[in-house]
Amino acid sequence: MQAKTVIITGAGSGLGQAAALACAMEGANVVCAGRTLRSVEATASEAAKAGGAAIAHAVDVSDMASTEALAAATLSRFGRIDALINVAGIAGPGTALTTSRQTWDQVLNINLTGTWLMSRAVLPAMIEQRDGSIVLMSSLGGMVGVPDILAYCASKGGVNALTKQMACDYAPHNIRVNAICPGTVKTPLVMKPYNDAGARDPAEKERMMDRALKRWPLGRWGQLDEIAALCVFLASGECGWMTGVITPVDGGMTAMGWQVGR
Ligand SMILES: NC(=O)c1ccc[n+]([C@@H]2O[C@H](COP(=O)([O-])OP(=O)(O)OC[C@H]3O[C@@H](n4cnc5c(N)ncnc54)[C@H](O)[C@@H]3O)[C@@H](O)[C@H]2O)c1
Prior knowledge:
- The model has no long low-confidence stretch (mean pLDDT about 95).
- The chain is of the alpha/beta class.
- Helix 1 runs parallel beside helix 2 (about 35-50), helix 3 runs parallel beside helix 4 (about 100-130) and helix 6 crosses helix 7 (about 200-215).
- The chain contains 9 helices and 7 strands.
- It has a single domain (about 5-185, about 220-250), classed as 3-Layer(aba) Sandwich (Rossmann fold), CATH 3.40.50.720.
- It has a 7-stranded parallel β-sheet with strand order 3-2-1-4-5-6-7, with helices on both faces.
- The structure holds nicotinamide-adenine-dinucleotide.
């Protein structure tokens, strides 16, 4: 990753922060982008200590002007964009009957429209370079049905479709597009429903955590650095012939089947 420039969205917490720090430790210049400047300043300063240069930048991935400003700021500081790792995302509860219109719009705007807009913002530079890697943080929810998160599953299914579609359009420009579908790693996004249940009844949180654990054939939750390692591998271009691939990183859950332990 030496001398490569990587934009990471959602870099203020969870998987995005882990990916930014992992890229920095491999020597990349990292652009740590998050919803507010304040949310990504700590990641950028830690990344700068790890190796390459690092800057913090505010972005709303669901806003076209904001994504274009992020790409422009990256080009002005580093002169190129070798990789985008698009991690920004939200979840929202509900079935087809109970999902509110507001939740649907928010989740689709950030997770799906945001993925398109961020990709759209970096593609011109990558086309000019005739080289680039786009890494999209999808989810198992895009591959299998997960109860009570309709909008989230729809958005991540869309991200998986974008992955294959953009891989086709931009392969002639030597731009690879791949997606990662993590199982559950304990981040603020994943822990929210458990913590909400725990606030009502601590024993219920324990039961939910125990049920979740049984879903992973490897017998444990995923770790931040395990997802970050795949981000680095895909962003680095080390396997430059890999594109349009949707990779589950889920402790074997999709191999075994979602019903395991339920
Ligand atoms: N943690 C997991 O187990 C898991 C599993 C599957 C998929 N994912 C995906 O990984 C991604 C990161 O989630 P996480 O678990 O690290 O949670 P997280 O809540 O820690 O991270 C999400 C980040 O996205 C940022 N964000 C939200 N809306 C934004 C916007 N409009 N513009 C810019 N940034 C925005 C948030 O500020 C936050 O930093 C999400 O796309 C999520 O769907 C996570």
